[in-house]
Amino acid sequence: MTPRKLLTIVVLVAVLGFGYYSMNAAPVLSNHEYTYQGGLEWHEDPDEALSVAEQQNKPVLVYYWTTWCTYCQTYDDEHYQDEDVREVLDEYVLLAINLDDPGPGVNLAMDHGANYPPQHVIMTHDRTEVSELGGYVERDRFLQELRRGLDSVAT
Amino acid sequence: MFSLQTTPTPGTALLVVAAFASSLAAILLLYSYLDRTDDLRRVILGAAGVSAGALVAAHSYLTYQFIVGDYTNAYVWRNTADYLPLLYRFTGAYASHEGSILLWATLAAVVATWTVFSGYFEGRGSRLVQSLSLSVVAIFATMLVAQSPFTPIEVAFPDTPSGFVPPDGDGLNPLLVNPWMAIHPPITFSAYSLLIVPFALGVTHFVSLFRGEESVFEAWLPSMVKWLRVSWLLLTAAIVFGGIWAYSVLGWGGFWSWDPVETAVLVPWLALTASLHAINRYEKTGEYAVFAPASAALAFPIVVFATTVVRSGVFRSVHSFASGGIGTGILFLLAVTGSVALALPLAYWLLAADDLDRPANESWLSRRTVYHVTVLAFTVLAFISMWGLAFPVIRNAATGVEVSVSQDHYNLWSYPVVVLTLLAGGLYALLDTGRRRLALGVTGVVAILTAVGAFVAPTPNWYLSDPSALDPLVYRIVGNLSVLSIIPPAAFFAAGWITRYVSRVRGVPSRSFKLRETGIVLIHIGAAVLVVAVSFVYLFSTSASVALIGVDEVGNDPEPIVQDVPNSEYTVEITDYEAVGSPTIEEAARSPSGVLRVDEDVSIVRGEITETNEIEGTAVARLDDSEVWLANADGTASFDVGTEVIARGTVFEVDSGTAAEAVYVYTDGPNMGPLSDPPREVHTPRVTSHELDVTVYEGDETVASGTIAEQEYLRAEMNTNDPVIERSITGDTYIVGSMNGPGASITIDTYPLANHIWFGVVLMLLGMATLTVADGWFRKR
C-alpha cells in the first residue's frame, strides 16, 4: 500500500462521513406542519393559522420566502433572531409560505399578489389586509411596521 | 409527446436533417471502428459536415428571425420585442432553454465535426472517439426536434386564431438586458462544448483497455490538454462574467451567494482543475493512469449536471427563469454520459488496473504524495459543492422535510480544505526546488502560524461565521476561527510558487519554456490573491441604508434632499430624480405601413396628414398618402393638412370591395397630438428607469457620486438596478436604490478588497492563456 492509496481511501471515508453528517446536521426549514424561519415556528397552512388567530384573537403575519432569497436569509439571521422583534412577533400568529412550493398557501399568495420574496403581509383572522411590506427593510422599520400593525388591529 | 410537438417549419427541418446526419455519422463511425475499415470515410465526412452545417444554419436562421422580429415563431415572440436594441435581439436567440440548447448543440457539432475532418487524428480508436462525440450531437439534435425553438405560435398557443401574427414580442427577460449577460452564455456553452472530445476520448481509452487494443489516448493527449485548458479558461471567464453581472444588476448581495447555479458551475470548474493537475502528472510520469482519463471523461457529464441544476426546476435559484420542460432530454444525456464515464473507469480500476511499481522506501511526505493531496483536495471541494446541491433534494424526496443549505455549509466546510490545499501547494512548490529540509521546515512554521492566526481575531468581524448554539458542531468550531488564518498559507503558497518559478527558469535559454512557467506561476499567484480577497470581502462588508421621502419632487426644488444614514457616518444627498420611459411614444408609434402590416386592435400611429375628408359626419385624415386614415371619433381631435401627428386609437378595417382597403384609426383629442407634443399619458412604456442623482458623504468627504437607477419592467417580476460603484484599491463603495412611490430607499454597501478578486481572476486567466499558448510552442520544439 502506497501512501497515496492509503490517503485516497482515508479521504474517501472522510468524504462519506462528511456527506452523512452534513445532510443530517442541516437545519430543518419545514416539515409536514411547520416551517422554521429564523428559528421561529411558522404555520404553513393559511386555514390553520387563521383559525388559531381567531381563537387567540391575534393578527396573522404572512411571510413569503424562498430558499434562494438572500434577503430572506438576512431577515432570518438579523430580524427574527432579535429580542425586540420576537417580543412583538409573540402577538402575531405566524404563517410562512414558500413561494416556490406554496402548498395550501397558493391561493393566499395569489390574493396578496406575492410575486417575489421577501414579502410580508399583516392580516386579521377574517383575511382583511392590514398592511403590506414588500422587499427588504431595516430592522427598526420592520419593528415599527409590526407595532403599527398591532395598533391598527387593536383600534 | 415526442413527435406531437414537432411541426414542420424550415428551422425544424434543419434540426431533423442535423439529427439524422449526426446519427448516421455516429453509426458509420462506430461501424468503421468495429470493422476496421476506412471505406466509408467519404460518406462519414459528408454526414458529419451536413450535421454541423445544418445546426449552424438553424442557429443562424433563429438569430435572423430574432433580428427581423418574426413573431410567427413562438420562441422568438417569447424572448424579444421591437423596443430592444440590435444587440439584445441578437442575444435573445439563446435567452431561453431551447435556443441555448441549440447554441450548445451547434458548437458541439462544430467541435465534433472538426475532429472528423482534421487529419491529425488517426488510429482505430479515433473512430470511436469521433463516433461518441457525434452521438452526443445526435442526442442534442433529437432533443431539439422534440422541443423545437422553431415551433409556430399557433402550435405553441392553440387558442390563437389561424394566421394571427402578434404585433410585438413579449420581451426579453429584463435581467438579461446587460452586456455581460450577452456574452456569458456563448462563453459558457463554448466551454461546455469543448469537453465533448475529452469525454469521448476518456471513454474510448477505457474501452480500448478492456478490449486489449492500443489506446489512442496517448496520441490525442496533447490535443486534449488543449481542449481542457481552453475550456477551463472559458469556464473561468464565464463564472467571472456571471459574477460581474450579479454584482451590478442583481443588487442582491454581491458577486457570489452560493446560489444553486453558481455552485453548480463551480463543480465542473473544480473538477477540471483537479483533472488538469492529474493529467499534468500523467503526461510526465504516467501516474493517475486511471484518474487522468476518467476525470477528463467525467467533466462533460458534470457540466450536463450543472445544466440540469439550472434547467430542471428541481433546484430553485435565480436562474430558474431559464427553466423549461426539456428536463427529460437533459436527464437522459446526464444518465448516459454520467454512467459511461463513471462505470468504465471504476470497473477498470476494480478489475484490471495493476499498481505501478513504487519504491518501497518512499517517504510519506514525498513530492508525489503532496501533489496527490492537492488533487484530492480539489475533488473534495467539488464534492462539498455538489453535495450541498444534492442532499436537500434527496432528503426532501425521501422524507418530505425541507432543510436549508446556508452559505455556512459551503464556506465552513470548504475553508479548512482550502487552507490545507494552500499549504500542500506551497510545500509541493518548494519540494520541487529540491531543498527538502528547508521546504518541510518552512511549511511547519507556516502551519503553526496558520493555527495561531486562527485564534487571533482583532474584532468580531474576523470570525469566519457567527454560528448560533443550535448550529452543528463543525459550524461552531470552524465558524469561530479567525480569517487571519488564511493569510499565512496564502502568502506561503504564492511565495513557494514564485521560488519554484525563479529556480526553474534561471539559466534556461528556452523562451517557450520560460513563458510556460510564467503562465503556471501567474495562475498560482492569482489563485492566492483570489482566495484571500474572497475570504475577506464578505466578512468585512458593511451595509447601511436610509429611507427618503419626497424624492419625486426633488427636481422641482432648488434645495436637494439631504439626510443622515442611521448607524453609519454617511450622509446622502439627492439632487435630481427622473423617470425615463422606454420606448417613448415616438419610438413606439408605428408608421402607416406598420399599422397595415400588423394585426392589432389598438395602434399608435405616426404620420403626416396629407388629406382630410368627411365620411357620414365623421372627419377623417389621411396619413402619408397611405391607406391609413385617422377618424375623429367624438369631434375633439383637429386635423390639419401638413402637420405630423401621433395618435392612438382603435383600428377598423373597412373592406370597400376594391383592391385598396382603407384602415381607420378612431382617435380623439386626448389620444392625439402633434409630434412636438404627443399624447404621452396614453402610452405605457415597457420599462421605466427611475434615475436618482446621488452624492454620498462620509463626514465632510465625498465618497461616491453619480446616478443610480432602478428599472421597472411592465409585466416582469423583478426589477433591475444600475448601482454607482466607487472603486478603490481598498475596496468598493456600492450605492444602490429602490423606488417606492414618492419615496426611495438608498443602500450604501462597502466591499473591501473587491477589486483584488478581479485582479486575482485576471492573473489566473492571463496565466492560463499564456500557458496554453506557450505549451503549444514548447511541444512543437
List keywords for this structure.
heterodimer, A: 155 residues, alpha+beta, four-stranded mixed beta sheet, 6 helices, B: 781 residues, five-stranded mixed beta barrel, 22 helices, 54% helix, disordered N terminus
The residue ranges of chain A in which pLDDT falls below 50 over 5 or more consecutive positions are none
From the structure provided, what is the oligomeric state, counting identical versus distinct chains?
heterodimer
Please give the radius of gyration of chain A in angstroms.
20 Å
Question: Helical proportion of chain A?
Answer: 40-55%
| Strand line-up in the sheet with most strands of chain A | 5-4-6-7
Question: Number of helical segments of chain A?
Answer: 6
The SS-based structural class of chain A is alpha+beta
Summarize the structure.
The complex is a heterodimer of chains A (155) and B (781). Chain A is an alpha+beta fold and 155 residues long.
Overview of this protein structure:
The complex is a heterodimer of chains A (155) and B (781). Chain A has 155 residues and is of the alpha+beta class. Chain A contains six helices and seven strands, in the order H-E-E-E-H-E-H-H-E-H-E-E-H. In chain A, the strands form two sheets. Chain A has a four-stranded mixed beta sheet, sandwiched between helices. In chain A, helix 4 (83-89) packs parallel to helix 6. The longest helix of chain A is centred in the first third of the chain and has 23 residues, at 3-25. Chain A is elongated. In chain A, 35% of the residues are buried. Chain B is of the alpha+beta class and 781 residues long. Chain B is built from 22 helices and 16 strands. Chain B has helices at residues 10-35, 41-68, 74-79, 86-91, 97-117, 124-146, 153-156, 179-194, 196-211, 217-250, 260-285, 291-311, 327-351, 367-399, 407-432, 436-453, 473-479, 487-505, 511-539, 585-588, 592-597, 754-780; strands spanning 402-403, 542-548, 561-564, 570-582, 602-615, 618-623, 628-632, 644-654, 662-667, 672-674, 687-698, 701-713, 720-722, 724-728, 731-740, 743-752. In chain B, strand 15 (731-740) and strand 16 form a beta hairpin. The longest helix of chain B has 34 residues, at 217-250. The radius of gyration of chain B is 31 Å and the shape is globular. Chains A and B meet through helix 1, strand 1 and helix 3 of A and helix 14, strand 1, helix 15 and helix 17 of B.
